[in-house]
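Hello again, I could really use a second opinion on something today. I've dropped the whole record in just underneath, so have a look.
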Amino acid sequence: MMRKKHPGAAFGLSSKGEDEPEQEVLTPEHVIERVVTCFGGPIALDPCSPTIKEPSFYARARYREADNGLTRDWVDDTFVNPPFGTLKEWLEKVRVEAARGLRIVLLSPFRSNRAWFRLTMQQADTISFEDAMNFHGRKDKIPVPICLMSFNCQIDGPLTIRPGKIPKCPE
């Protein structure tokens, strides 16, 4: 009997016990264009840059897996499309770096059922809920809701909110 893969396994969304998912996917160009517009210029840093084939767009500086962008300092105009399998750690790092005043845009699955995700939402200046999207090199659209969160800058999208109205998480 063949074991079925979780539909989100290619995006690091599978449960424990599922096949190890491929974590590297390339951000769609239309998202990168919006990030560049938000920053008013090129992306300065991609702290979790893929090692797979180079996309047609790129940041001025990149941290690959071996560089461990979670342990390095970030700079203004950082774009983060983290491995979804380690999302919590990446969102914690985004909160720390944004608290330093850095302009950051994060592409993330929408996980409002997680306290650590809600903490990140509360710190964001804007949250743009995205239409289902195809990542480069994938046939299927990602099977979960996706959002772009901006910190210390404003990003627009199909449905954008200002999180100041989101209730605080209970301590």
Notes: Residues 105 and 150 are 4 Å apart (CA to CA).
